[in-house]
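Entry: Cytochrome P450
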Amino acid sequence: MKKKKVGLPQPPITSIFLGNLEEFEKDHKQHEKLVEWHEKYGSTFGMLQGAHRVIVTSDMNILNEVFVKQFHTFQARMIHPSFVVDQVNGRQLTLFFSQGNQWKRLRALFASSLTISKIKSVEPIMEKAHDELYQVFKKNENKVIDVIPNILDMTFAFISRSALGINEEFGKSEYLHKIVNILGPEETSKSLISSFFAGTWDFLSITKHFQILQFLTVFREAFKLRDNIIKAITERENEPLTSTRRRDFLDFLREAQEEDFDTTNKPDLDMKIPKKITRDELIGASMAYLFGGADTTATLINYCLYEFTIHPECEEIILQEIDDYIKNEDDINYNNVKNLEFLDRFIKETGRLHPFAYLYVIFAFFYNQNIKIPLCL
């Protein structure tokens, strides 16, 4: 495919190797930088993140094309340019990183594996995590406390226990500490290894073989977590059928496991859509639960609490709605919570106002004869 210039405005290139990435990530204020560039260059502009050629837009017509008219074309997410991930042939891809038929297949498999009845089966785990959070708040009654770390402890307790059966003491999770370190890495320009991968993204077919270098960065913790997940999967594979252990999401996904399908065989993937996931994909899915579940959920809850403080009238409506459907602790279940329609709308509107994962959104290729444009919205 030939590349054609589209004449978009863009910030001046500040680094031959990193493009605009150093300026974009400075002091971890990416959102403020996007707003600044939007005001200066308009609703649609280009930028370079390492070797990633990116278009940023708030144009409603383009958004309508991406999310509605041509949604079938946009089947993958943009990943950070320093991540050495082969989104086409990677063996342990998740929904966050996969694309094309593989993305469609994984989404369908996960949706069928995690049915409502199976989600309901982990309600006791959720209730225990909520009760532990309540006890923390009760101990600090009438005191001013920072609720953010406590809420993160609660969401991670639920995710880790329900996804992998990890039972750590509430508020003292070693897993959570490692994940926080991974999710909050230093600026790319301050890491020689990350800068190398970001600047050589066009040569991914070669640089992907140097993934071992990432073990020297904060991602070494991710490799350790992966080993722990493999151990947990192996233990489940070897446990007797008479085991009385409480089943979790990992067990549900294992029911959809297939050992012999080769996801690197592109013709096979295109012509035969397998109805089970591979062991490598199972490992990747478990990693995605730990990394993608706890922090995003905690962030959304924190934003909801913030909106309560500036919109007390909404809080009153929600409290009344809860009183109408939930009379005591025994009434706190999936069906009754589903009836809280105003709360549901409030949460969705909060997520719209405060997009907590705006840097990890759609990455796609827009094809128009001889034009290929990576698109980040």
